[in-house]
């Protein structure tokens, strides 16, 4: 029986990695990560409501008005964690994203334990804890610095062919006729321009502001900038249009620069990196480093809120005495919070209005995110008194790492495939070892 409980904790950790992966299908369907988080949390709340009603736990909700107000704030962590997973998984991959979550969880739980915060029993600093913390840092650093198995294409314009052929070729500085399209693989001469709005097929040179298909690059313009506005056509689905952001200084008045979509860009301009005028198509390394650092920090913060959520929910459980009622309150607060955030972002034009009609296209497994979240909450509440908090957290963290490594290596749930390398496997081993030392040492 004891081993079955241990396996249950391991499986609960795997569900967190699966949850973040399948939630990407909701994001694709509704067109905004905040809308996807709202749908996923709504599903989880509905499932917990049904479970609480079936077990007679709803009566415990009568004690909610008498608890301290901050006992109800544990649910605020869920929108941040879920939305961060939707944003980070396609940019960093499952393995690195979950590694960042685990790192945040480890150091936040250490702060709670060593300082005795939020009612957590204080524990002394030990050699095992220090070694575990060092192993976690070494593990996440190894994964983050490991070479990407499939690097994104460079953001540089291809060299102009020595000899141009085809009807689209013309002398330098000539203008293509309105509405004309260059044949596949052709390139307009340096300095030439096609009218705004014309479509160029894959591999061709498109003018600044035009809708360019996957892999196309705007032609070189004055001063070595990419296009007249210093823009770079975003890498996306062939023929897709990427929202434009203001052009750089020195660009013609009224011009727009599309966000550079890639490993750390896209999603409607969130975290987009812009080309630097006069850089001949290159994105400044410092800007790329800053963007990457921002995503890495988001992953650590999103992981750190989970132990805080657990500590607050533990205080709420002490008042309500029903795990399912506590989970229901937590997810109800989370759903309400993300719904308010979504409404504010839509009203201010910071995110598109969710397209609920797209939910019909979500595969059946794309709805598992809400179920994974609900099962994880129930499992952790049930397992904590049975096998202890330290063992539960250590095994759930191990499950997260194993599941994320599998998803990355196989490309499961339509994720980009990132084969495991020796460096990435070493990082996973260090993370797991560090987690076990911190929580079991």
From TrEMBL:
- State the signal peptide span: 1-20
Which residue windows are transmembrane per the record? 39-62, 69-89, 95-118, 125-144, 294-312, 324-344, 364-384, 423-440
Entry GO CC: plasma membrane
A Pfam family per the record: DMT_YdcZ
Which parts of the chain are coiled coil? none
User: Highest taxon of the source?
Assistant: Bacteria
Compositionally biased tracts (Pro residues): 148-161
Q: Which UniProt keywords apply?
A: Membrane, Signal, Transmembrane, Transmembrane helix
Q: Where is the composition biased (Low complexity)?
A: 162-217
Q: Could you identify this protein by its name? A: Uncharacterized membrane protein YdcZ (DUF606 family)
Segments of this protein annotated with the region Disordered: 147-217
